[in-house]
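Section 3.1: Structural characterization of target chains.
Under the original work plan, the team committed to producing a structural model for every single-chain target entering the pipeline before any wet-lab resources were allocated. The record below documents one such target. The sequence was received from the expression subgroup and is listed exactly as submitted; it comprises 549 residues.
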Amino acid sequence: MWKKGKWTLLLLVMVGVALAFQRPAERYFEIAKSLDIFTTLFKEVNAYYVDEVDPEKLIGNGIHGMLESLDPYTQFIAENEVESFRISTTGQYGGIGALISIANKKTVIAHPYPDFPANKAGLKVGDEIIAVDGRSIQGKPTTEVSSLLKGQPKTEVEVKVKRYGQKEELIFKIRREKINLRNLRYYGLIDSDIAYIKLDDFTPGASREIADALKYLKDIGAKKLILDLRDNPGGLLNEAVNIVNLFIPKGLEVVSTKGKVQEWNKQYKTLNAPVDTAIPMVVLTNEGSASASEIVAGSLQDYDRAVLIGLKTYGKGLVQTTRPLSYNTQMKVTTAKYYIPSGRCIQALDYTNRKTDGSVGKIADSVKRVFKTRNGRAVFDGGGLDPDIVVADENFAAITNQLISTGLIFDFASKYCAENPVKPELKTFRLLDKDYNSFMVWVKEQKFSYSTDLEEHTKSLLEAAKREKYFPEIEGQLNALKNKVEGNKASDMIRFKSEITAVIEQQIAFHYALEHGKSEITLRKDRDINEAKEILNDAAEYKRILSPN
């Protein structure tokens, strides 16, 4: 537990840092005044508030509140959070190499990463964790279970699990290793000459992994490339620069950063010989593509090096720098905005000009500017990247989302694989009608229930009619609507059989063969990928898209 003096000192440092970038001659009085007010306020609250206050919590809330008023990326990192922060930025930790999650109210192995200790020891997707080193994990949050599994490399941990279809609990003694998570989820040929690479992160080594994958895929016949950056939240800027460098010549600017401290402003140029500057290329994006993903996609778009397909990106054009603070704490602070080669910044939310209620709005279309790509195509700033070809997102029905979020589809996949231990040919795998019927019966046995937005709106409409005394006049219509909604809901398992079946097939394939298996199922149905294949197989259309508007 921190002493309140340490927290006060830390807050002084934080406020000092926040104001240090102002001109000193004008700000010294404001700094001294603000710190004096805060110190005396805290002293009075601590002395006279009716109940005992927790200094750590009180000042911690003050710190987080102060930083939240700036933007969501400027964050205080407490001493006990530093290790988690390091793992998120480097992808490295000591442990067994498995992702855990909650599925159907059970703590399960969600993803034993290939070639790491958990996978090599024999842990499988869906194994329910019962105990770690003899300690029951019943009711413990996944963060605590994850901490028990982590540890120094070369130390041993005992994991007790329950596996579907086996009466006896299984015990695995696993030797921890240094885990260095890979950035590539999957790569392979998805047509005779079309390569597909799915990049999940930008931790150290991402560019090397893509370079190695691309060289391998070209050796086995790839003449076109799809780079998938969907749902990639970004990471290290230098990895983004090096990835762009694989596809454009040495000496070109990829991104520049501009902030208040001019000495920190920098241009990042390609420094190495590229791997391939001519291979026809599509980059897939969506609203989950952010930061470093947008640098890669945006730079390749600005140089007319790739066609962007999918949805508009997130729009994060802010750069963070980690600064050390007192008592082994740190602060991640926004220090600059980044600009891609056309000169545009793709930041979508305007944190500088908050509304009167404190909310943040998107940068207005009226102030967005037009920029030009190398070939003269029009592109815009201030709102993420617009793809060259928009493919509408496919939304799931409420029942499908609920079956996923509750873990019932995951759990059923565990059941299915236990009852069918021989892995089928996944490229042609289909869930049979009898298996889907079995799934419906099983879901009913789990006492599954859910609500839809339409159902909630209907309830609200009924309540409003009663409250405002219109109910007697429209009771018949409202009850008919309520019955219709409930009747539709009762048939949802049949109505949305196609999309539910597709998700079950993906999860079964993942249980059998992890990401490689899941990709063999999903790639054949992915609308973005099918659109990309169509463009890459039409040389004239590909050239037209990259030509001036």
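The first strand starts at residue 75 and ends at 77.
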